[in-house]
Amino acid sequence: MTDSRSITFDGRALTIEDVCAVASRDARAELSRDPTFLARIRRGSDFLERLLREDGVVYGVTTGYGDSCTVVIPPEFVAELPHHLFAYHGVGLGRMLDAEETRAVLAARLQSLAQGVSGVSVELLDQLAAFIEHDVLPRIPAEGSVGASGDLTPLSYVAAALCGEREVLFRGRVQPAAEALAALGRAPLRLRPKEGLAIMNGTAVMTALACLAYERAEYVSRLASRITACNVLASAGNAHHFDEALFAVKPHAGQQRVAARIRADLAIESDKPAARNEQRLQDRYSLRCAPHVVGVLEDALPFFRQLIENELNSANDNPIIDGEREQVLHGGHFYGGHIAFAMDSLKNAVANVADLLDRQLALLVDTRYNHGLPANLSGATGPRAAINHGLKALQISVSAWTAEALKQTMPASVFSRSTECHNQDKVSMGTIAARDCLRVLELTEQVCAAMLVAARQGVALRCAQDDVVPGAALQAFQADLERRVAFVAEDRALDTDLIALLTAIRAREWTLHDHA
Ligand SMILES: N[C@@H](Cc1ccc(O)cc1)C(=O)O
Fold this sequence. Notes:
It holds the Pfam family Lyase_aromatic. This protein is mainly α.
């Protein structure tokens, strides 16, 4: 833990940043001990128990699951049923979620159950909270959820681990969940009648991944604005494409914000008329329309935040157990359509930013478009220039990463298909969309890392060549980049630099613009 921030799970709304802080262990998670909160949780599970004693029919409690809801479960088997739910859903494949993702999943599930309408016991919430507190991380395979009976299959690994089954990552070692629980002196959970469904029949995996994706996308948006400013400077572009008066007449707030960031970086003062570059009236679109491309992402983010946080702060399982009004409400709140849409759209907006940057780099390395900089931004001079190829391969790699990012933008949600004997005849595919989105972000961050190498090189070359003095923000940024990456005077492998920059991007090491 890097600070002592603590996030309380008491049914009140959490933010994306709260989930991300728990995921990165920058904050600890605490289950509220407030008596009103605990009483509310107990009312739900007490009501459910009373209902069972009085012989009520509750889906998934006294019936089989899904399409099998017409199967009546004899009372002597009711207690075993939830364990069957996670047992037969142990069919996940693909990569394992990483530690950060897994913590985010646990937090998202705890937050949903803490709404107090899932009919679970305080003991279950305690066990989940203990997993977060002690960093007991169920091994969760990423694939196998259609995202509309919730994330049944991946969440079965959470349910199983809480009960001391399957595997967890604990204290740096993959081990049986039972061993980790024993080490902590905690008993495995014995699920009560509705608790299997409560853990598994919800959207926690896609919502968790969406929170992580959102935070990364927000940073990419700021970084892309900064990189654009560097490229305008390096290619002696026309800084007045970002003029305040120009953007005042197109009132997309996010687009205006991006233009303002680029303007600030280029130290353009609105009251001063264009002083530079009248010889070239208009730059190519990848520079001139950068606010219009990054602005789409910037303008869409608040909407995505709303969708993601509403899902995060929702009861998203089935059935809903209203202990106050003593009602069982059968519905479909496990349907992750909002997250699916947010992630399908976010990956599109982010991939467009990768594409924009790829085009900027294509201009910057090309002597036909870079206004006097050396070919491939090579720093070699004299006869040795002949054998030096500078950033040629880096630019090719950016093309490859961009193409791969763009390829991932096919919406997942449109691939809904009827499954589970047509009970689930329309599904969200939100988890696939969220995984795609994370992959697009990974590739776009790689593009950004490469762009930083190019910016560092391009700005240095321009400043040396034309006696340009960057404004304060870019000067400081350039100085920082120069400390991280040596000038490419002779050809060399750049992979180590790229990895270091990628790590810095993921850690959001640069405070960019109006970012807190
Ligand atoms: N999500 C389904 C329940 C379900 C659970 C497990 C399954 O294997 C299938 C369906 C419902 O509430 O209707």
